[in-house]
Amino acid sequence: MKPIITADSLTMHFRRCDALRGVDLQIEPGTVFALLGENGAGKTTLIRILTGYQAPSSGSCRVCGLDPTRDPLGVRRQIGYVSDSPALYDWMTVSQIGGFTASFYDDRFRDHFNESVRRYEIDPAQRIRNLSRGQRAKVALSLALSHDPALLIMDEPTSGLDPKVRRNFLESMIDRAATGRTVFLASHQISEVERVADTVAIMHQGQICLTAPLSELRESFFHVVIDVEDPLRTLPPLPSPAEMLSEETEGRQRQWIVRHLDPSMVSMLREAAGVIDVRHRVATLEEVFIACTSSDFATSSAEVLS
Fold first, then answer.
1. Quick one: which of 19, 90, 205, 290 has the fewest CB in 10 Å?
2. What are the residues whose beta carbons fall under 8 Å from the beta carbon of 132, sequence distance 6 or more?
3. Is residue 51 within 8 Å of residue 79, measured between CB atoms?
4. Where do the domains of the chain lie?
5. Which residues does 226 contact at the CB level (< 8 Å), separation at least 6?
């Protein structure tokens, strides 16, 4: 099957910053793809380009087989979108906003919306302005899903929501992927990404630092602790295919985050002059994220882990 999203060397230049700096992506259908990044990393800018609301400075992309720059309305008919602060008409009732949105889609939309609102136990006669933040989020999700889109794009959707509503959102992502649909989740909530994602990309300063299946992240990244006799001791470099993401020194202890570490490398370190002990374990996603978004790593290799 063809990728549902592709991006090739996307850039976005604003007057005072480069929001995107050569973004390449390929997202397969039927998966939950998580774009993990700090605030200001470029996630929302990328989403605006993918949904046709912003033309890139250079590069190209396709969403559901369409070019968002040339056919933005065609793309939006194929997708659902939920932001962290959904823009809804406050003066409408829940039923009215469902009817208004249904006018853009086929006859099934209204029935699907009503069923979704009923499942979330929201009064259709209640005005949007009187809904809680969690209820507004549920209405926004219902609107985004009622035309059964091939792709659901969510930009920090659980920000500020209580745990119960957050759980509903996470379950909806898993349910979508189970039916062969695709979810694109932009977030900085690492715990949520770990619960739902099939594939994770880490974005920093407008670049994709890493893209890998979550299962690979859990198996191929290691946290290594090395005790040395002398804080100034130089350690031997790790051979290929090992890749160093970060290194910290605290007194006589070195801490590394390493990709593709194997037992022979650990043995080599233990035998190195001045080394007292070497310990290693699988790195957490949070440790990998911090390593990828550290200044040292970001300035040296956005390409190493692509």
1. 90
2. none
3. yes
4. 5-89+144-205, 219-299
5. 235, 253, 254, 255, 256, 269, 275, 277, 278
Task: Provide the β-strand partners of residue 305.
Answer: 210
Nearest to 257 by CA among 213, 201, 304: 304
Among candidate residues 203, 155, 173, 141, the one with its CA nearest the CA of residue 53: 155
Which homologous superfamily does the CATH classification assign to the domain defined by 5-89+144-205? P-loop containing nucleotide triphosphate hydrolases (3.40.50.300)
Continuous segment of H or E residues that includes residue 306: none
Query: From CA 292, how far away is CA 286, in angstroms rounded?
Result: 10
What does the pLDDT look like over 73-102, one tens digit per residue? 999 999 999 988 888 999 999 999 999 999
Number of residues assigned to the chain: 306
Domains 5-89+144-205 and 219-299 share a fold: no
Burial of residue 283 (CB within 10 Å: 0-12, 13-18, 19+) is: buried
Each residue of 95-135: pLDDT tens digit? 999 999 999 998 899 999 999 999 889 999 999 999 998 89
For residues 12 and 54, is the Cβ–Cβ distance under 8 A? yes
Report d(CA 29, CA 37) in Å as an integer: 22
What is the pTM (predicted TM-score) of this model? 0.88
Strands (E), 171-232: 182-187, 199-204, 207-213, 221-228
Q: Quick one: which of 20, 13, 61 has its CA closest to 37?
A: 20
